[in-house]
Design a protein that fits this description.
The protein is of the alpha+beta class. It has one domain: Alpha-Beta Complex (tt1808, chain A). It has helices at 38-52, 102-115; strands at residues 16-19, 22-26, 33-35, 61-69, 72-81, 87-93, 119-123, 128-134, 139-143. The longest helix has 15 residues, at 38-52. The chain is globular, with a radius of gyration of 15 Å.
Amino acid sequence: MSLLQPLNLPPAPLKLSSKAGRVFVNCLVRKKQIVLTPEEWVRQHLISYLHLHQGYPIEKIAVEKQIQYDGFTRRWDVVVYNAQFEAAILVECKAPQIKLSHEVFMQISTYQKMIGAACLILSNGQQHLVYEIDAEQKSLTQMQHFPKNQF
């Protein structure tokens, strides 16, 4: 499978390079070269989409931070913060060939318990699942579109 597989997202202005036979992408958030994997390809396109098309400031987007959960160290993919720097959107990215299964949903749900974002996005670059969480009603509603920045 090609690393540069077309995705169901607008093209992203990514800077790619290669060294010693490996392809790197300049991360839009971390501002450094990252090895380009299929999952990173999806992550960078999704970051670009949230920033350029949905209006989220790049400064309010964080990538791959560690959390401790049940004695394990985990890493969430992307969190978008609101104006008060509270987690508003939690994103889980998978490589295009990975199905957005129940296991993937359980993974993001585990992170959600620690982060408390009001919106969840699961994406493999081809399929995107967007959910809004109502903490008071303890309900989850699947949305038809990505949320636009309202902060």
